[in-house]
Design a protein that fits this description.
Elements: H1 2-16, H2 20-26, H3 30-45, H4 60-74, E1 88-92, E2 100-102, E3 107-111, H5 112-117, H6 121-136, H7 139-148, H8 150-157, H9 166-184, H10 190-205, H11 213-222, H12 229-233, H13 240-251, H14 260-269
Parallel strand pairs: 1-3
Antiparallel strand pairs: 2-3
């Protein structure tokens, strides 16, 4: 009976207003974020033409640098699922794309174009905090449930369709490929974007960084001609910079570090 009543309630909720109680009741278990992320990560890594991963060999220092930023955020004490998700970092070797994203379960992808574009470490930390927040607050999983329904998302996340039947296996692979593309191209709601911005400040507040680092990123984006890739999936509501800076001021965070010199040196290692 629950399987009939809850989807009906959820449909009414989405149509009329946001109903967080019903949404939470329908959300897959947190372990399924990790399972979904693992499968989406494998799908992304299989598409080397679309997502050319920067080789670790020869780029160890760059990888260590970006992963160190990630660890500082995870160690801030403010990431709810810091110990539940993988939080693996990959760098995509694409100098023309100003983007970063994080799948359910904490698989983080940062484009070389974004690293080269930014001016300081706190700006990159701010963007990474924003992306970590989307996974930590389960925004992608919420969007996937809205798009595909809780039963399909939960079944694929759990690998339930990969029995020893070729047709089921093929259908599961096709659905996973579809979902992998959908996760990367998700357009978050303004509420999700604002929460991710706010959490970026909260995460960085527990580090030595300038907690409003993400504001510097959006200021630069505001001067960018055309529509950068990041803004195609992360729509920019009005007063975004002001909100981030106001959040940082209200929290009275102690950190001030921008590490511009070190950041410029890391950028010079990328060709």
């Amino acid at each position: 009976m629950k399987n009939i009543i809850l989807p009906a309630l959820f449909a009414a909720c989405v149509f009329h207003f946001q109903c967080s109680t019903v949404r939470k009741a329908l959300m897959p278990n947190i372990s399924q974020d990790a399972a979904m992320g693992k499968q989406v990560n494998a799908e992304i890594l299989s598409k080397s033409g679309e997502y050319p991963i920067l080789p670790e060999q020869g780029n160890q220092e760059v990888y260590a640098y970006v992963r160190n930023i990630t660890q500082k955020i995870l160690n801030s004490g403010n990431v709810e699922h810091a110990k539940d998700f993988a939080w693996e970092v990959k760098i995509i070797n694409d100098s023309k794309t100003l983007n970063a994203f994080c799948t359910p379960g904490g698989y983080i992808y940062v484009y070389t174009g974004l690293i080269k574009y930014l001016d300081s470490e706190d700006q990159l930390a701010g963007v990474m905090g924003h992306e970590i927040a989307h996974a930590d607050k389960r925004h992608s999983m919420q969007q996937m449930v809205d798009l595909y329904g809780v039963q399909l998302v939960a079944a694929i996340a759990a690998g339930a369709a990969t029995a020893n039947k070729s047709q089921q296996t093929q259908e599961s692979a096709q659905k996973m490929a579809q979902m992998g593309s959908a996760v990367v191209g998700l357009k978050f709601s303004r509420n999700h974007e604002k929460e991710a911005d706010n959490m970026s400040v909260a995460y960085l507040c527990g580090t030595e960084y300038n907690s409003a680092g993400a504001a510097g990123f959006f200021k630069k984006m505001g001067n960018q001609a055309g529509t950068p890739e990041f803004l195609s999936t992360h729509p920019s509501p009005p007063n975004r910079v002001q909100n981030i800076e106001a959040q940082a001021a209200a929290k009275n965070c102690a950190g001030r570090s921008t590490n511009e010199g070190q950041y410029q040196r890391i950028k010079s290692l990328l060709r």
